[in-house]
Amino acid sequence: MAVAVEVARPHHTLWGDAFIRLRRNRLAVAGTVIILVIALGALLVPFISPYDFAKQNYDAISLGPSWAHPLGTDELGRDVFARLLYGARTSLAVGIFTQAIVLVIGLPIGAFSASVGGRVDNLVMRFVDVMYAFPDILLIILLRAIFGGSIFMIFLAIGLVAWVDVSRLVRGQILSLKQRDFVTAARAMGATGRYVTLRHLLPNSMGPIIVAVTFGVPRAIFAEAALSYIGIGVKPPTPSWGTMISDGYNQIFAAPHLVAFPALAIGILMLAFTFLGDGLRDALDPRLRR
Amino acid sequence: MLKFTVRRVLWLLLVLFAVAFITFSLMHLVPGGPWDREKELAPQIVENLNRKYGLDKPFFLQFGHYLWSAARGDLGVSYSYQDRGVTQILLEGLPKTATLGLAAFLLAIFIGIPLGMAAALRQNTPVDYVSVFFSMVFASIPGFVLGILLMILLSVVLHLLPTGGWGSIKQVIMPAFALAALPAAYMARITRAGMLDVMRQDYIRTARSKGLAERIVLVRHILRNALIPVMTVAGPQLAYLITGSFIIESIFSIPGIGRLFVQGVFARDYGLIMGTILFYAAAVAVFNLVVDILYAVVDPRIRYD
Question: What is the pLDDT of residues B199-250, one digit of tens each?
Fold first, then answer.
């Protein structure tokens, strides 16, 4: 009687493998933990801090850190810790939504350009080149001035400038995948161009896209902070780390903590996303490892 | 080579034309006009102002007129600075922005390259780990966060340097370091990778085996080859640094080009916005072109035809 032989190594999917490699990367794990802690703090801030982000208290103006206010209060007596966590909502929302816009614009354009090829491809890529020629933060500022309005317009302004990276990446991926044997095989079995693109080309370029999006998040967070810093970002009293820096800047000598904490927060969150991005890149493409 | 240069210059002009056209169109979409004031101006005055600056003409006529003057170096009028043209305003801001950028660039080279070299020569030792860690941190923290932290440390706590302004060497130090951190980190990374790659090559072993002094192997064989990729990044970095970082200029109150742009956006100063974007785009494009050409001069393997 035949006995089923136990296979020694459990089966891992491609993504399962990548996850295992990611877990072994200490910096990537640290980055993920930091992002999760900040995200949880931002979600749960009403339960963590008794203070509101807009409530002013003129009996506690520009105080340094204390037990009542762990990170001090600002020039209107608002709790800095609570405002930082509410500001994290703004930063994370900007990071996530701009990347969603980047994907919605960049993915189809890149995929379309590569699949159609020829003159259309050439034209699209020349347009991308022109977009690259713009100084990006200046273009974001100009778009922001045109759109005006709510925080969603900030997402849109940043997204409309940032999509070019992803479109170029997707195009490159698809062009190189198109040459591979499995695509020829699919074609030979009668798959249509649309089917090949959606079923084979796009899923196989997911890895680099995920990495690019992860690196895009800190850049979007920076762009929002810069917009808010010069005063055309989110509208007060909605807290944003950029606004907090520009508000606190006037009293940097009297109350340096008002500037230091939001600046540190921006630095730490951007660093965390970069660590995660580096880790994802190594995990998703082990050949790239140095 | 000549053919390549000509083709690239033509393409550059086309790109600048497209940039100008897009910016020009966008600016005409900005709600509100340059004549928005707290107290509304009489319609007749607005009409006269529009006529004076040609804003009553059809869009394409305005654009054509702008391009024609821009080609001759006149970037038009600024509505908020009545006494000077945009070209003149930019030229006044340029020396400050460029000085700061050049200082930052030199800092980046003199910090980044030695740091990368040290890391490569002492691979997998604490020197390497520290260098890699710092270049990772500084590559991901934006300059303005670093600038603010430097300001708190050196100005607020230690009272060593002024918080901003322009005119003395002391006022350049902090913004230059803040600007230099990111390119220095890049250069360190690329120098390290380039050196590690070159050090494994056969010709390095050959150089050593024929009895050359280690110093000569390092300078003549390793560095000369390892620094070529560094040059590719250095070019665009120089362009970005010299055209400046508007946010660093804002934080350190430096009256450079970047700050002009921010003021221009607030004042809906079409002329100034347009001029700044075109100027930045042109500067970056020209720098990149020059680097591409230099690249072929330095590395004879590269041929563009």
Answer: 888 888 888 888 888 888 888 888 887 887 787 778 777 777 776 678 888 8
Helices (H), A117-239: 118-133, 136-147, 151-178, 181-188, 193-196, 202-204, 206-229
Reply yes or no on whether the pLDDT at B305 is more than 60. no
Task: State how far the Cα of A46 lies from the Cα of B286, in Å rounded to an integer.
Answer: 52
Check B26 against A229: CB less than 8 A apart: no
Q: What is the pTM of this model?
A: 0.81
Look-up: residue for tokens 């949880």? Answer: A40
Report whether A175 contacts A197 (CB < 8 A): no
- Res B282 pLDDT > 80: yes
Nearest Cα neighbor of B296 from B219, B231, B220, B199 is: B231
Q: Please give the ipTM for the structure prediction.
A: 0.77
Residue B79, SS3? coil
Quick check: A290 pLDDT over 50? no
Selected residue of A35, A139, A142 to mutate for chain B interface (largest B Cβ count, 10 A) = A142
Which residue is it, tokens 């009553």? B56
Structure token digits, residue B218: 């390092």
CA angle, residues A66, A72, A76, in degrees to nearest 5: 135
Give CA–CA dist A237/A231, Å, rounded: 12
* Residue B43: alpha-carbon gap to chain centroid: 42
CA distance B23 to B17: 10
CA dist., res. B9 & res. B161, Å (int): 44
Distances (CA, A) of B274 to B85, B241, B288: 12, 20, 21
Whether A141 and B142 lie within 8 Å, measured CB to CB: no
**Cβ(A125)–Cβ(A117) under 8 Å?**
no
Picking from B18, B145, B152, the nearest residue to A267 by CB comes out as: B145
What's phi and psi for A256, nearest 5 deg? Answer: -60, -20
Question: Could you tell me which of A104, A107, A106, A45 has the C-alpha nearest to residue A80?
Answer: A45
Alpha-carbon distance A267 to nearest alpha carbon in chain B (angstroms): 5
